[in-house]
């Protein structure tokens, strides 16, 4: 398959206008040369004033990561937090090559505020300096720490779910698979926001958005190449790095999956939801028409972003209040 002649769903008009504004100030396709610059100028961050205005406390903790190496997590709670409620374990996005534990939290913090939840967000190590399995194993190490310290940080260990967006969504799915296979912490749910799941990049949508939209095909190939090196697209890739490769999704917690119809991840995300259903796992799937990758963060005031946020918030409420 090639990209040249493929028709593709158009962008939503509101989102297309914002995409044009972004393209006017920054390249939409990620390159290896841009990685240092993107890391120096992290996107989708809140300020200290934002956390203060929301009535939230942020506390950093050093914990053992993969192979015992030290990594950081941040624990975020309401100032009026009461112990014993739910816990949320967060894995950030950034294509496996950028971002930090605070990236994209504006999409997650409403669930903390709504439900008096404790949020633990992990600073996993990034590719290419730390290729697979570092990122997903750091995420799993952080999950184990969160569950083992639930009483101390103030949530009930049986009310913990995992959440991530983009690469963080893929890492959340991979971490849930590890937790199942190693009989690790019990998760009550997995929130997979437009997750990055499949290193093979052979779906129709992965070709449709080649040179179009945010985090296009070339960006995605770069992210997977940094994570997997020469293993990308071969048989030597674990299901924890690329959860789309898993052939047994039984025993996983209920999932929420969303994506845009106009992004590279559309088909692999829909396929993952179908595979979960085939395995007897509950999954809720939303495909937002004309949505480009990460539109809720890039265009938060658009009608589509508000609808996406409402759908996620409702799923979390149902998950935590069955």
From TrEMBL:
Please report the stretch or stretches of sequence annotated as the Alpha/beta hydrolase fold-3 domain. 89-295
Whether Hydrolase counts among this entry's keywords is yes
InterPro entries this protein is in?
Answer: AB_hydrolase_3, AB_hydrolase_fold, GDXG_lipolytic_enzyme
Gene3D superfamilies with a match to the protein in the record: alpha/beta hydrolase (3.40.50.1820)
Q: Which organism is it from?
A: Dietzia lutea
Sorted alphabetically, which keywords does the UniProt record give?
A: Hydrolase
Among the GO molecular function terms of this UniProt record, one is:
hydrolase activity
Q: What is this protein called?
A: Lipase
* Pfam families associated with the record: Abhydrolase_3 (PF07859)
């Amino acid at each position: 398959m090639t990209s040249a002649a493929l028709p593709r769903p158009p962008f939503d008009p509101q989102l297309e206008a914002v995409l044009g504004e972004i393209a006017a100030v920054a390249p939409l396709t990620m390159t290896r040369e841009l990685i240092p610059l993107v890391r120096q100028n992290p996107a989708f961050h809140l300020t200290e004033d934002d956390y203060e205005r929301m009535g939230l406390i942020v506390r950093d903790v050093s914990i053992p990561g993969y192979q015992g190496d030290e990594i950081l997590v941040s624990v975020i709670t309401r100032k009026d937090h009461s112990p014993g409620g739910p816990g949320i374990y967060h894995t950030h996005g950034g294509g496996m090559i950028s971002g930090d534990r605070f990236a994209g939290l504006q999409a997650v913090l409403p669930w903390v505020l709504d439900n008096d939840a404790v949020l633990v967000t992990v600073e996993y190590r990034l590719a290419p300096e730390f290729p697979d399995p570092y990122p997903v194993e750091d995420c799993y190490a952080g999950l184990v720490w969160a569950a083992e310290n639930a009483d101390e940080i103030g949530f009930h260990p049986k009310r913990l779910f995992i959440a991530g967006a983009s690469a963080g969504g893929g890492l959340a799915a991979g971490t849930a698979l590890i937790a199942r296979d190693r009989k690790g912490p019990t998760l009550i749910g997995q929130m997979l926001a437009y997750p990055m799941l499949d290193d093979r990049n052979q779906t129709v949508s992965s070709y449709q958005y080649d040179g179009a939209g945010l985090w296009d095909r070339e960006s995605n190939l770069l992210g997977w190449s940094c994570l997997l090196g020469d293993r990308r697209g071969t048989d030597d890739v674990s299901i924890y790095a690329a959860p789309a490769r898993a052939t047994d999704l039984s025993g996983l917690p209920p999932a929420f999956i969303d994506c845009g119809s106009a992004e590279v991840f559309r088909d692999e995300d829909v396929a993952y939801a179908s595979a979960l259903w085939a395995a007897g796992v509950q999954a809720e799937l939303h495909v937002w028409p004309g949505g480009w990758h990460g539109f809720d963060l890039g265009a938060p005031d658009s009608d589509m972003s508000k609808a996406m946020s409402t759908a996620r918030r409702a799923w979390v409420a149902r998950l935590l209040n069955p």
